[in-house]
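Now for my pick.
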Amino acid sequence: MPGTANHTDDELMALALAEARLAAEAGEVPVGAVVVVDGEVVARAHNRRQADHDPSAHAELLALRAACAAAGSWRLPGAQVVVTLEPCPMCAGALLAARVDRVVFGAPDPKAGALGSLYNLGADPRLPHELEVRAGVQAEECGALLADFFVERR
């Protein structure tokens, strides 16, 4: 499934990158995410840990919360999440709990990535749900945005 009926993975990653840039402008680690259900973008978010004083305010979780609120359910079967950075264990767990079908991410995260780099929670048969994962979509641009952000902070 390359993207959705209405959007390609690259188009959706462009939306996630726009969210990540908003995060950087706000002094947050530049990670952005979008949630797509039935071919339509139903939620967009970026990291807000600093602004919300909340360690769980990762882009994926904020987008999932908004999508679940819009759906009126904690389950998002058929949903796709596109995020600029490989999800951490917390976010991968939430994606699994929400029964998301597919995750597309840009840059891998060798320090905390939980969908292939450090862990592979999306393909663990011991868990009650598995995710289809596509890694590396616009990885260079996603990684450069993060690298530039941290260079400016040092």
